[in-house]
């Protein structure tokens, strides 16, 4: 690797001059310079200066098996030598996407047996949107094409992904969304629960917003509801237990398809292979990406339930949709090996019965009592910390989001990579985290909170 011939300042200067970054203010990037991560091993990432950080975000919610897995590099190299690429259009196929599809059908809930590949979560959601509309058209109901989503949802960054998502800032730059997508309230109890309302009641009220939207349009006009089981980028918003079963009941009652976006939660994060199992629901599609390869290769898989898949077969006709890299042989080879590692090391079970509960307890007992913390919450190895000025009143610091950025900067300086969304701190570490690493992360969070409090008060 030739980057060693460059100083950090040179890399930053070239980066700012030539590289437009995702979700980044280019002006700020020029002024501040990027943090250049140069290598990684196990749970740690290292910048060009050798500064070591515990990666509390598993890259971007994806490196579930941790860094430095030689097996994944080897299987990619072997596949590149054997067959680096061939397409899966026009009745062609290659071995690794075939075998991966079989494996995914085994891991997915029983009624899901088909897979459509892409390279990213955004692409997979484009596919999902087009597929459910295609399904209803095949069923002779082309007007049943409205999609219900939620405010603060994140479903990717393509035009369809942004339209499905409910991020106001993203919509403001869209200049015209995909038509016929509506957004209802999110199930975010911490901020939206009414005085005297229980979590259970709040979950039912948030689900009722889905039914209201169906009734408003007329069920014969609504194709599907889409949701992340736990809203990730929107701030690890965990719905009350009453929410998902009620949403599913409503969808079934009105014959509306249920689309689950498990780009973050898929492949073990919640202590099950899929959060559909965690929340006891049976979606018609599950969007997955990220941890499918632990981020070692770009790959997404839209898991398609029997109801839709059977109609495609029974009615026939081409689905005019696909990507050059759908079923990329190298990405699929890496995914197969990655899933083998997750299984062999029992990572999903470990999150469920050991590290997940330990993480929840550590957040509850060590982090929640801090004066800056309004609430902690987690499922498996996915957690959030709400930063507030006043615990009792839940009053936030102003301007909005500034306090969490202060905490995040101190956390990074203390050696823990975390993310801030609004005034919520987020953790979504590799599933290889042990109890000892969770303790270490909590030490660093507490240090960051103390330093932030001194800055903020
Ligand atoms: N859906 C969810 C829930 C996500 O969190 C993301 C990315 O973070 C996406 C979709 C988009 O995935 P990608 O960035 O691979 O396009």
UniProtKB/TrEMBL annotation:
InterPro entries: Aminotrans_3, PyrdxlP-dep_Trfase, PyrdxlP-dep_Trfase_major, PyrdxlP-dep_Trfase_small. Keywords: Aminotransferase, Pyridoxal phosphate, Transferase. The keyword Transferase applies. The keyword Zinc-finger does not apply. One of its GO terms (molecular function) is transaminase activity. Gene3D superfamilies: Aspartate Aminotransferase, domain 1, Type I PLP-dependent aspartate aminotransferase-like (Major domain). Pfam families: Aminotran_3. Belongs to the class-III pyridoxal-phosphate-dependent aminotransferase family. This is Aspartate aminotransferase family protein. It comes from Oryzicola mucosus. The lineage of its organism: Bacteria, Pseudomonadati, Pseudomonadota, Alphaproteobacteria, Hyphomicrobiales.
């Amino acid at each position: 690797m030739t980057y060693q011939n460059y100083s950090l300042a040179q890399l930053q200067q070239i980066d700012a001059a030539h590289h437009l970054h995702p979700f980044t203010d280019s002006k700020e990037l020029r002024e501040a310079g990027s943090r250049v991560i140069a290598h990684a091993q196990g749970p740690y990432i290292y910048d060009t200066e050798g500064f070591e950080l515990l990666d509390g975000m598993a890259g971007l919610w994806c490196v579930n098996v941790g860094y430095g897995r030689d097996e994944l590099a080897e299987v990619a190299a072997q596949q590149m030598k054997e067959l680096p690429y061939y397409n899966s259009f026009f009745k062609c196929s290659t071995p690794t996407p075939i075998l991966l599809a079989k494996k995914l059908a085994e891991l997915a809930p029983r009624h899901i047996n088909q897979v459509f590949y892409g390279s990213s979560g955004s692409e997979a959601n484009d596919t999902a949107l087009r597929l459910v509309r295609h399904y209803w058209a095949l069923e002779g109901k082309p007007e049943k094409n409205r999609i219900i989503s939620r405010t603060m949802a994140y479903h990717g960054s393509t035009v369809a992904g942004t339209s499905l998502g409910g991020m106001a800032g993203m919509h403001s730059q869209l200049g015209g969304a995909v038509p016929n997508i509506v957004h209802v309230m999110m199930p975010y109890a911490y901020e939206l629960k009414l005085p005297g309302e229980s979590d259970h009641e709040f979950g039912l009220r948030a689900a009722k917003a889905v039914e209201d939207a169906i009734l408003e349009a007329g069920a014969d006009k609504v194709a599907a509801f889409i949701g992340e089981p736990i809203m990730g980028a929107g701030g690890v918003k965990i719905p009350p237990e009453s929410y998902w079963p009620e949403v599913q009941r409503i969808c079934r009652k009105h014959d509306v398809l249920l689309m689950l976006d498990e780009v973050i939660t898929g492949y073990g994060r919640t202590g099950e292979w899929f959060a559909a199992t965690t929340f006891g629901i049976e979606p018609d599609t599950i969007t997955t990406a990220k941890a499918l390869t632990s981020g070692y290769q770009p790959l997404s898989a839209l898991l398609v339930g029997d109801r839709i898949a059977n109609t495609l077969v029974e009615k026939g006709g081409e689905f005019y949709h696909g990507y050059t890299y759908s079923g990329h042989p190298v990405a699929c080879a890496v995914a197969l090996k990655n899933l083998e590692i997750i299984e062999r090391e029992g990572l999903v079970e470990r999150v469920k019965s050991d590290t997940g509960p330990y993480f929840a307890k550590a957040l509850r007992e060590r982090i929640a009592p801090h004066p800056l913390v309004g609430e902690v919450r987690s499922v498996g190895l996915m957690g959030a910390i709400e930063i507030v000025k006043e615990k009792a009143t839940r009053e936030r610091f102003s301007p909005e989001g500034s306090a969490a950025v202060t905490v995040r900067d101190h956390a990074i300086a203390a050696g823990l990579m975390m993310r801030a969304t609004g005034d919520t701190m987020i953790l979504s570490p590799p599933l290889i985290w042990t109890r000892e690493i969770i303790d270490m992360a909590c030490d660093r969070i507490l240090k960051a909170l103390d330093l932030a409090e001194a800055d903020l008060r």
